[in-house]
Amino acid sequence: MNATPNHDVTATGNAQVIDFAQLRMHQVEQVGGKNASLGEMISQLAEKGVRVPGGFATTADAYRQFLAHEGLAGRIDAALDGLDVDNVKALATVGKQIREWIVATPFPKALEDEIAAHYAKLGNNVTVAVRSSATAEDLPDASFAGQQETFLNIQGFEHILHAIKEVFASLYNDRAISYRVHKGFDHKLVALSAGVQRMVRSDKGAAGVMFSIDTETGFDQVVFVTASYGLGETVVQGAVNPDEFYVHKPTLQAGRPAIVRKHLGGKAIKMEFNTEAVAGKSVRTVDVDPAERRAFSVTDAEVEELAHYALIIEQHYGRPMDIEWGRDGVDGKLYILQARPETVKSQEQATDKLTKFRMQERSNVLTEGRAIGQKIGAGKVRIVRDVTEMDRVQPGDILVSDMTDPDWEPVMKRAAAIVTNRGGRTCHAAIIARELGIPAVVGCGDATQILREGDEVTVSCAEGDSGFVYQGLLKFERVDVSLAQMPKSPVKLMMNVGNPELAFEFCQLPNEGVGLARLEFIINRMIGVHPKALLAYPNLEPGLKAQVEDRIAGYRSAVDFYVDKIAEGIATLAAAFWPRKVIVRLSDFKSNEYANLLGGPQYEPHEENPMLGFRGASRYIDPSFRDCFELECRATKKVRDVMGLTNVELMIPFVRTLAEAEKVIELLAENGLKRGENGLRVIMMCEIPSNAVLADRFLDYFDGFSIGSNDMTQLTLGIDRDSGGPVSASFDERNEAVKAMLSMAIKACRARGKYVGICGQGPSDHPDLAQWLVEQEIETISLNPDTVIETWLLLAGESTTIKSS
Predict the structure, then answer these.
(1) Residue 428 is among the residues annotated as catalytic for this protein
(2) Beta-carbon contacts of residue 168 (< 8 Å; ≥ 6 apart)
(3) Active-site hit among 427, 628, 633, 759
(4) Strands 440-442 and 417-420, how do they pair?
(5) What is the pLDDT of residues 698-730, one digit of tens each?
(6) Catalytic residue list contains 461
(7) Predicted TM-score (pTM) of this structure
(8) What is the Cα 346 distance to its own chain's centre?
(9) Domain Pyruvate phosphate dikinase AMP/ATP-binding: where (predicted)?
(10) Whole-angstrom distance between the N-terminal and C-terminal Cα of the chain?
(11) One-character DSSP codes across 546-615
(12) Which residue is catalytic, options 248, 308, 428, 530?
């Protein structure tokens, strides 16, 4: 850690109140992790441009002197002695009594005077936030996120005194008492510091949380930013589904546009100042205007500025960080409000074993939301409406609620999974679910309406960013993959990765890059609209236009939505595997598949055999589709030339003739994707017998081949790969005729000194085919991620160590 004690600072001794600017990280025992961190950033990072609002902190000594009043400490110790924190009702009773005692106990006069003096230094009756900072919190191996209270928009000395009292009392919230017991912290050794910080007017702007690491996979080359309108408590509490952004660190550091993926959140409500505050209600929650919901709450430039702050903070502290931020709606500036160590993914012990969960069967999806963790859980639905019903949750139940408040931590650990209507991936409930190792699907919107009490369901968070609640108890498996001393492979092994949402997970497997990234997955999952319909917007018929408008919310135009979403998908893959090669195959939808997209039927021809119809290169160069293909080119050029992710290479599918090859290469060049410029390689998918027969002549136009074994087998043997029936049994990539085609293609590339790999299904299904390809001197074999380790070890002559449980 780079933050070292500065002993030249004015001595604080046993002071009861200290200005943030006088604090450093080594003073955690005096003012808690949160306040010590604020002081560290104010004094050490301001010169690097990180803005942190000023303020002051009461000390642990002040807290202990307060507890010495009227025998308060003794009463608290007696109440906690022998308490069973797993007895929810007993815990609630004892916690409530202790909090009432604390609020009723007066402050010492000396402490009140010091608070008054420091408040006066902030300005004339300024508005502040009063936050908690426990002396054991925010340690690298424990997260106390959200356990104590925060009070916003507090103005006036008397109101500040009351808020500090409430903060002290919150050290004995039910969740905090339970957490300390389970983490082994002695109640008597934990003290509380209250931080009084000048308010950022994010009630008129935006706020959120960011991590300098991906919270789900531990991938450390991105900053994950969440944002919503108003005060950040709605994001922290999980009351809203926020906007989400991933920023690639190396791209940001290179000074290029670095947002590789973003997701528009619902942002249904926001918290703002209550100008007519009564009975301590200094903030209120209001609905967000529908037009604002359909827009991102922060600009791309602001997201990148925040990510830049995250990099500075991470570098200073020397570890992944969890950071709260706010944008002041008055001055328009971004501020860092808190920073604490990330305590889940960064603390997982290094191991030679990779544990993954996989669904073995699927059923009807009842509801879906944002996936927390990468596990799977199954059990009976238990719908909990409020804290009074918590004790109904039995071990192995699926806890379902509107939003899972951190107060519920004592029973959350009983659940096999958690499902909520509201919340984002950085809310307190999500943080606790990760720490407990429980899969959670948050922000479903309708979980408490769709799911029924007692129903048996399976909750899967192992399929990317989206988490799914399936009907019934389904089969799934836990897969332990040994990575210990991986032997040298005789061939470069790459991966076929279709879903960008899984890229941060898959890139942690041993690999040489991505041999096949299918654009169809990005278009189908992330866009879902036919490109012709987007080009025709806004002149679509009303019903279709309304559906398209829902999809394109947050983007400048319908066409920009298409281009930017393709770019996001490609950039996510490129960032995950950077600087290793990522070969992106441009779209290879068939006409019936394009027809399944929104608006598709009116633009696609009816073909008796779409497999052999209007697809691949012939579609790109046809006047009816050329404008759609040019959008794909724009997206790819943005990723390579604007973002600088030049590890992206292009693959052209289903090139039937030499004339098609020539025209496609010309069309790419016309759209700024010329072979050789900025290191661009263009690969042809070798999947038609004509490609192998005329391999040398096709190589005049391309930088190499990537063999598609599925179509090559189909067209060599004359078997429709989509058909079933008796003839399907003869479909085998190991057939001698198919092997002859593959051998011709490999030899031609070798003779020309050009790239040759295979990305078809064959080697994933048939290890003996993979071995034969090695003997043919193929350069790379691209496999499905779940077969990489097994095939790697087999080719290296070692037995597999994959085990399921």
Answers:
(1) yes
(2) 63, 66, 102, 192, 194
(3) 759
(4) parallel
(5) 999 999 999 999 899 999 999 877 666 677 778
(6) no
(7) 0.86
(8) 15
(9) 29-359
(10) 39
(11) HHHHHHHTTSSSHHHHHHHHHHHHHHHHHHHHTTS-EEEEPP---HHHHTTSBTGGGTS---S-GGGSS-
(12) 428
